[in-house]
Design a protein that fits this description.
This protein has 272 residues and is α/β, with parallel strands linked by helices. It contains eight helices and eleven strands. It folds into two domains: 146 residues, Rossmann fold (3-Layer(aba) Sandwich); 104 residues, Rossmann fold (3-Layer(aba) Sandwich), CATH 3.40.50. The longest helix is centred in the first third of the chain and has 19 residues.
């Protein structure tokens, strides 16, 4: 049997863009997520398919996948939108030069943002536009959808809720005063059969917990819709601990933010 072999090679260099923070856990989380993606992309598949003229296989459908070293090493880096030594557009220009040197002609910017706020709608596109003016078409820059728009985000959150083993669910997000953003959060919570609560705007977490307890529930799963652990997720945990002392007859189960996990890396690899 003769096998025809096709090598699948990455054609894009990827820049993961996160918000940025003075909390070192955010930078560590972004770096860890990058490393998970590098490892995931380091091995691509060789697709080996039989020559249909030399096999009796029906419809010639047999396919064999064999791991092989990527002929071109993946180029994946991280950059912060804010609170970084240099601006995002400067990071993009530097990354474009690096990509060109390694033979990449296309860059995908992947916003690690969970909702369509100002950063996603305005700030990141503006920074990309500034970078494009400086690189003189040496490489092309493509903006990918933000993380919260991925089709796999709902199943990922649903699995996290399932591990908390409670029928009553509260999804707590940062919240926004920007028109349309909270509609996104509400729709997401609805798909998860959860109630939405916000950290920065009403309805707040304590209010939503009070309402659920008043309805007779005895166990509440609370999932923070945040990318990495930080000061806000710490504050949420402290608030829940205080509420738990008040309602000893009810079990409050707190989940973890998305974090730099294999599941998140797989989601990005599949959809970006």
């Amino acid at each position: 049997m003769t096998l025809s072999v096709t090598y699948l090679i990455l054609s894009y260099a990827y820049l993961l863009v996160f918000h940025g923070s003075r909390d070192c856990r955010t930078q560590t989380g972004a770096s860890d997520l990058r490393q998970l993606l590098v490892t995931k992309y380091k091995y691509k598949h060789i697709l080996a398919q039989p020559n249909c003229h030399e096999t009796s296989l029906p419809n010639c459908e047999l396919k064999t996948f064999i791991n092989a070293d990527l002929l071109t090493n993946p180029l994946i880096e991280v950059a912060a939108l804010e609170l970084a030594p240099i601006s995002l557009n400067e990071s993009l220009v530097n990354f474009a030069h690096q990509a060109k040197q390694q033979g990449f002609k296309q860059i995908k910017v992947i916003p690690l943002f969970l909702a369509p706020g100002v950063h996603v709608r305005q700030d990141i596109p503006a920074e990309i536009a500034l970078a494009i003016k400086q690189i003189n078409q040496q490489v092309t820059i493509e903006l990918s959808p933000y993380l919260g728009k991925y089709s796999g985000i709902v199943p990922l959150l649903a699995r996290k809720f399932a591990k908390l083993s409670a029928q009553t669910r509260i999804l707590i997000a940062h919240g926004s005063r920007l028109s349309g953003v909270n509609n996104y959060y509400q729709n997401l919570a609805s798909q998860l059969n959860a109630t939405i609560a916000y950290w920065s705007v009403p309805p707040k977490l304590a209010q939503q917990i009070d309402l659920q307890i008043a309805s007779g529930t005895k166990k509440i799963a609370i999932l923070p819709y945040f990318l990495f652990p930080g000061k806000i997720t710490e504050a949420i945990a402290q608030e829940i601990a205080l509420i738990q002392q008040k309602y000893t007859q009810v079990e409050l189960v707190l989940g973890q933010p998305l974090g730099a996990s294999e599941a998140l890396a797989e989601l990005i690899a599949q959809e970006a």
